[in-house]
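Reviewers of the previous submission asked for a worked example of the structure-prediction workflow described in the proposal, so we include one complete record here. The input consisted solely of the amino acid sequence. No template or homolog information was supplied to the procedure at any stage.
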Amino acid sequence: MRDVWSAVRRFDQPQKYKPFVSRCIVRDDFKIGSVREVNVKSGLPATTSTEMLELLDDQEHILGIKIVGGDHRLKNYSSVITVHPEIIDGIPGAMVIESFVVDVPEGNTQDETCYFVNAVINCNLKSLAVVSERMALQGRFKAVDQF
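From that input alone, the workflow returned the following structure tokens.
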């Protein structure tokens, strides 16, 4: 779970596990209220997103962001990601839940909007699983090398 949370909490480096993010620059110090400028890879109907860190709780493993600008159609978008300890096939792991609220853009239905956002979230979560598993394996190899 530690590896999962260490990736999720990095508001300043979403590209570490979010495959649609090509670059991220944080304007301020890394704290609640910090704003990041995200460049989005081609293939999505956007090139930039401006996002604010609303919540970061290292004890409860909660990250909250709000989109405050960009050249996309996700208006009033807020997201909360929580990471929970989970036993998977007898092995300690993590369950990650991301919930969101967003206005439905003019010309789209609620179903279309939810389908799009869920598709992006699911892609991010699959990538997070791969990145976290790789980090855990590297950590195990480092531990073995130290003996």
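The helical segments are 2-8, 110-145. We consider this example representative of the routine output the project will generate in years two and three.
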